[in-house]
Design goal:
The protein is globular. The strands form four sheets. The protein has a five-stranded mixed sheet with strand order 1-9-14-13-12, sandwiched between helices. A five-stranded mixed sheet has the order 2-8-7-5-6, with helices on both faces. It has a two-stranded antiparallel ribbon with strand order 3-4. The protein is of the alpha+beta class and about 350 residues long. The protein has one domain: Thiolase/Chalcone synthase (Peroxisomal Thiolase, Chain A, domain 1), CATH 3.40.47. Helix 3 crosses helix 4 and helix 8 runs parallel beside helix 9. It has eleven helices and 14 strands.
Length: about 350
């Protein structure tokens, strides 16, 4: 599914950004005490030097709520101004109620529509596309989209293939109508045939929690790293190219590129194939690892904090993940919300 914003459509932009990650830093040296690995091996293959792990007893909302409050403050809004909340995550506080409703209660968005969205590492792109559509159509006025995961809660701490890759973190954005700039186009897609390559089999209606399913590790991440790598390197490039082509711009027009922070080798491959200069690429995978739904919004917050986002900049975001899903979004940055 791909499309550019139609002429005459309402302009919708991101006007506030917030992020929150755990304080606990887990280095490759720390993980070497759990699995057979070392810092050099992990850095060479992934580019990851450290990641954050949440504390025991903490849940996603413990990070989603402060990230949301930061984004709201930056947009100059209160929780009561929000009428749609989407939390994009694989690790909600619980199966139900949705974490989005818990966030809404905490920030005072008492009457906002709220739901969780499960599209893995692509979740944030799916979420902002849905929020854009709701606002542009008039079904919502201002939306809060949160992307985040506490993947440490579902990691097999003795599986070297996954434990070195994933971390915890959360980012949030406010979307609303503006007079200039805003989203120019999106692409979203999924190939369920690849679902077997990155999944958690337990916890749903097919394999509910039992002593046997827990003992088998059914409630932990399972990944076919080779197949996911092949998919990611292909789709990051293809999705970005399709989105730019439909929006009538080229990679040379892009000022800031924010890819999903899965693995440095994947990012480097995509950057090389796209031909985008390194100085335009936002990378924080070395400090956070792969935070799934939190990946792109955390990188967006980093880019903003570093002064890399300016009004009028074209910002390209592309994600891919379990499903297997993928998605891209192109936005003309108007972080001040000028003219709203």
């Amino acid at each position: 599914m791909i499309g550019e914003v139609l002429p005459g459509s309402a302009r919708v932009a991101i006007t506030g950004v917030g992020a929150k990650a755990p304080d606990r830093i887990v280095t490759n040296h720390d993980l070497a005490e759990l699995v057979e690995t070392n810092d050099e091996w992990v850095v060479e293959r992934t580019g990851i030097r450290e990641r954050r792990f949440a504390a025991e007893g903490e849940a996603l909302s413990d990070y989603a709520i402060p990230a949301a409050r930061i984004a709201l403050a930056q947009a100059g809004l209160e929780g009561t101004d929000i009428d749609l909340i989407i939390v994009c995550t694989l690790t909600p506080d619980m199966v139900f109620p949705c974490t989005a409703a818990l966030v809404g209660d905490a920030i005072g968005a008492k009457n906002a529509a709220a739901y969780d969205l499960s599209a893995g590492c692509t979740g944030f792109v799916y979420g902002i596309a849905q929020a854009y559509g709701m606002i542009a159509s008039g079904l919502a006025s201002r939306a809060l989209v949160i992307g985040g995961d506490l993947l440490s809660k579902i990691l097999d701490m003795h599986d070297r293939g996954t434990v070195v890759l994933f971390g915890d973190g959360c980012g949030a954005v406010v979307l609303e109508k503006v007079a200039k700039g805003g989203f120019l186009g999106f692409e979203l897609g999924a190939d369920g045939a690849g679902g077997k390559d990155l999944f958690m089999p337990g916890g749903g209606s097919r394999i509910p929690a039992t002593h046997a399913s827990i003992d088998r590790g059914d409630h932990l991440i399972h990944m076919n790293g080779r197949e996911v790598f092949k998919f990611a390197t292909r789709i990051l490039v293809a999705s970005a190219e399709h989105t730019l082509a439909r929006c009538g711009v080229t990679i040379a027009d892009v000022d800031v590129y924010i890819p999903h922070q899965a693995n440095m080798r994947i990012i480097e491959y995509a950057v090389g194939k796209l031909g985008i200069p390194q100085e335009k690429v936002v990378i924080n995978v070395d400090r956070f690892g792969n935070t799934s739904g939190g990946s792109i919004p955390l990188a967006l917050a980093d880019a903003q904090a570093a002064g890399r986002l300016h009004d009028g900049d074209l910002v390209l975001m592309t994600g891919m993940g379990t499903g297997l899903t993928w998605g891209s979004a192109l936005i003309e940055w108007n972080g001040t919300g000028e003219g709203r």
